[in-house]
Amino acid sequence: MPVIKVDGKDYEVAEGGNLLESCLGLGLDLPYFCWHPAMGSIGACRQCAVVQYQNEEDTRGRIVMACMTPVTDGAIFDLSGERASGFRQTVVESLMVDHPHDCPVCAEGGECHLQDMTVMTGHRDRHYRGTKKTYRNQYLGPLIHHEMNRCITCYRCTRFYRDYAGGTDLAALAAHDHVYFGRHREGTLESPFAGNLVEVCPTGVFTDKSLVHDYTRKWDLQSAPSVCTSCGVGCNTLPGERYGRLKRIHNRYNPAVNGYFLCDRGRFGGTHVNAESRIDFPAQRDSEGRFQALTDEACARALRDRLQGKRLAGIGSPRAGAEANLLLQRLVGAENYASGMADDEHALMQRALAHLVNSTAHNPSLREIESADAVLLLGEDLTHTAARTALALRQAVRNEAHRLAEELRLAPWQDAAIRNLAQDRRSPLHVVCAGSTDLDDIAAGHYRLVAADQARLASDIAAIIRGEARSDGAAARIAADLLAAERPLVLSGPGAGSAALLDGAAAIAEALVAAGKAAMLSFTAAECNSMGQALLCRDSHIALAALASTDAEVLIILENDLLRRLPMASVEALRARIPTWIGIDCLENDTLARCDLVLPAAAFTETEATYINQEGRAQRAFPTHPPAEARRPAWRWLLDLARAAGDRTLSGIGHFDDIGVTLAGEDPLLQGIASAAPDHSFRSRGLKIPRQPHRYSGRTAMRADVSVHEPRQTDDADSALAFSMEGSATTDRPGALLSYVWSPGWNSNQSLHKFQSEIGGALRGEGSGLRLLDSLAVAAATPAPLPEAFSRREQEWLLQARHHLFGSDELSRLGSGIEALTGRAAIYLHPEDASRLGLEAGDGAVIAGAALEVRLDPSQVPGSAGFSTGYPETLALRSGEWVNIDVASDWQRQPELIGSDRGAAS
Amino acid sequence: MSEQIHSLPADAMVLSDAEIAEIDAEIAHAPYRAAVAIDALKIIQAHRRWVSDECLEALAAYLEMPPAELEGIATFYNLIFRRPVGENVILVCNSVTCWIKGCEGIGAAVSQHLGIEPGETTADGRFTLLPITCLGACDRAPVMMVGEQKFEDVTVERIPAILDHGEGATPG
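Structure tokens for the assembled complex are given below, as produced in the milestone run.
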């Protein structure tokens, strides 16, 4: 490893890095703006200037940009001398010339990288006396607030938005001293990753709109390590709370999963926890069918009355944590416990699990997905079903660029040079899906097929790779690209609803391994704990459809709206069959409305839970704040239910960690779940880890309208975290307990490097979840029959689900700002099919009783119809069914709004 | 606009046949369509004096590039006009050499003669006054341009004659 001299001291640094990341990795403070650990160097902002000397005799040296300077053995640098620091001070002063100094009214204030760097360089007195530029801001949609005056033109926004995330509608406009970062005209930013601009922008040009409207400074936010519950990827998040409200969600770095970035569903969808439809008190239906709130005692009595000596059945939930599901499974017995996924999805997830466990191909983490040098994506519109994974694929296709760079011995952080070198050359990505996808722009090939034909194509590809078949069509092209790669990735999932497709994906990966490739196989999962439910029910399970034929007297429904899983008629039949329904959930829904007893669950920001992502990685989420009113974590309600039912094993459980201790036994799955994070007894330097930064203010004032006597902070007996600013917040605390990132002088999230063992590497405190599938045994899946090839019918259309990032997920669609983006549920038709039906874009069509907006899409396979899945209007529709399409009679067309109208409305 | 409006493709409807033909001629020499962006903007401006939002979006669609990227190009160059201009654009140089030789008086004289400030267009639509940094004739400073005509060694006294009759333009 090279040894460099900085300010007269020798340091050993990693080979191949640049000086800036080496210095930061060594713990030296060197200011920067345009460099980003995930995006490399372009040397644009000139802020990281240092002096480099030729040799020991050289006394003059020369100014170099640290981010553009490779570290070489024996190199000598002056970081803190007058020349280097004076230069940096001048740079920041010139960047500040047009900056409005509006920190007191800026949402970035207190976590602003520009503030930090200005202070760090020592620039204090303004010499500029001229006028400052003022810009007109743009309406950029309901999620992002725009304030161009604050810009210091570091170009990070467009580098992330365009170069990293593939967005096309944000650009650097104009030139000289009036460069403007915005859209060509006002309107919602189109990229599903636009929210990352909030964290990528070093100052307050792009801020979180819902935070701006409901504002709290970072130092006044209470936060805890959490896991996103909006899809199956399991991105790590840092929700921030004050006054019992979720204010915002920031990224929490996990090197193996989400790295530095989130998708906008995850970032903005979480505020559903502030919805007015939250349940606050337990309630029981009275004789007139109305819900009446219960006191704690009355609730306990009601539970005893309804549960004692009764035969129980339970429906778990793929959006509830593993512990609550486990408790329910134990309480009702595995044979009376349904996973809570729709029966077809449950079967698909079991199949995906069996393939992942039994395949000789590697089941990759998200980080490993980025290393794939050829990708076959089967049946998933990934940007809408697992957006963060789609962002990872956007990096994977750049491996060709990195290969070209390596040939020229260009360092991987030379971002502009590598992009210039590669131009449009990408590693191959082949996308097989029922319609166009948001990855088509980087795809080497895209193939629009309905699920049955997707499965047939997958089977053909596998046969070609095995050498059993030949073709000169799409299958051969795809097979050739996969075989030409070293680390090919096959990615599929339950989104297309086809078991044969999952088998096909696994067969291709297997064939690639047999061909000597380091092949990877990955499946998406729809919800945050879908894989956990597949694991929990791997040996025993009752189908939802079979529940109606049991002799259960009480049905306990955990965080699940059954109308999303079962046809209405089946729900009604089940309701008629089982006399007592007890529902535990956080938001009102149609299932709770059918229950006899409703128990208010803590939302994901209020409960400890372990979620198991699509990779089989168990990750622990901790409550950001205690639940208000009579809301309680689902696992606590289940312990109450167990006590009421007289279950002696479960009744002995006191706090969260006891669940694992009591129930895990020899089960490697449960042992893994229990050890996903340090337990409640963990201490750092003998202290608990605070959720509040040490500058947290107003603890008395914020409830002075109630009482000026400050109550004792809530104890957290269940975890090593405290609802307090007191405790030990060292930078080497375990990653699973990283409640916020802050370091002296580094108030923004850029302080993260202080917590990393190396830039972009592991956290100093380790811990990025626990992979469970590597140590489990699951029976292999019985091959599914290959479906018949699709042939269109004269009067009927084959339904194919279309997933929408904003709208298809049950809870995130209620997030602040997101409800404005979900739009109407739609039916997608090929233009020729639509004209056959006499329908035009924007018309209404009736399918199985649901009135949907017609959208024309030339990529829709003729004879099939895509529908917005997961919308309240489309819950009755099932992918793979044949339906009639009729013209809706009294349909109101959506009025067209222009951007400024929406701006005025928001 | 006297030229016939082009009918297809839908997004390009605002571009005329003549414009499309000229742009196509440029595309024939380019490795990919978006490569002719600057020339295409100049073609549209030659036909219409300026590039409207509608034209920009239509052109972006025609060149198969994001409108934001084309807007980035259009706004980078100060001689691509994204707002309406008069029949003659007056460019008065305010760069170092012209400044030494008294261009401030020149600009003021133009303003006074036409009754417009820099950035404005006369009510009759004949003139738009814009400052510019260097017209490449520093040896004959102060310099200004009116439409396609260049005027060198300009004096305040010459302004009325230049603007009213185009007197004293440098041949070339």
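The interface with chain A takes residues 53, 56-57, 60, 66-72, 75-78 of chain B (CB under 8 Å). The helical segments of chain B are 17-27, 37-48, 53-62, 67-76, 96-100, 103-114, 159-165. Further analysis is deferred to the final report.
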